[in-house]
Amino acid sequence: MKLWDVERISIVGNSGSGKSTLALRLAGRLGVPHLELDSVFHQPGWTELDLPTFKARVREFAAQPRWVIDGDYRVRLDDLVWERADTVVWLDFPRWVVMGRLLRRTIGRLLTRQELWNGNRESLRNALSRDPEISILRWSWTRHRAYRESYDVVRSDPAHAHLTFIRFRHPRQAERWLADQS
Description:
It is a single chain. By secondary structure, the chain is α/β, with parallel strands linked by helices. It has a single domain (3-179), classed as P-loop containing nucleotide triphosphate hydrolases (Rossmann fold, 3-Layer(aba) Sandwich), CATH 3.40.50.300. The chain has helices spanning 19-30, 37-41, 51-62, 74-77, 80-84, 95-112, 124-128, 136-154, 171-179; strands spanning 8-13, 34-36, 42-43, 47-48, 67-70, 87-91, 164-168. The strands form 2 sheets. It has a 5-stranded parallel β-sheet, sandwiched between helices. Helix 6 (95-112) packs antiparallel against helix 8. The longest helix is centred in the last third of the chain and has 19 residues, at 136-154. The radius of gyration is 16 Å and the shape is globular.
């Protein structure tokens, strides 16, 4: 499948799989707007945006004719992204790949104090927390299998028959696919 055959792409996968990086590259190549769902959901102080406002903002963005959206808030958003999408790119990388990427990214963000969204920054305390709701490292580790099982189920759901699923099991596959789109 070539990029010019698609109009609305949802990129999903575990935390640390590279969703936002790939989404930015795809959006740039296609010349379409990009939305990182985390940037909308996580408000200052890591507070969560209220659900009605979150849905309204995502719905407004998704109403555009062409876009790339990364992140998976399907349960909270009642599939409103996938209702409009025509393609889902699933980054289904091995746990060791995801955790290696996530650890490097987290350490880098801690050292540089990089702002993520809305003034939020990663903290050592959060990174080392045992609570997966607080630690992105713990979240990714504990959710890896659940994401894989979930996407295996949802891609065979008749409600998603309109979607083309592209599943990458290693970053090299995604890189080759992106390179082939020139």
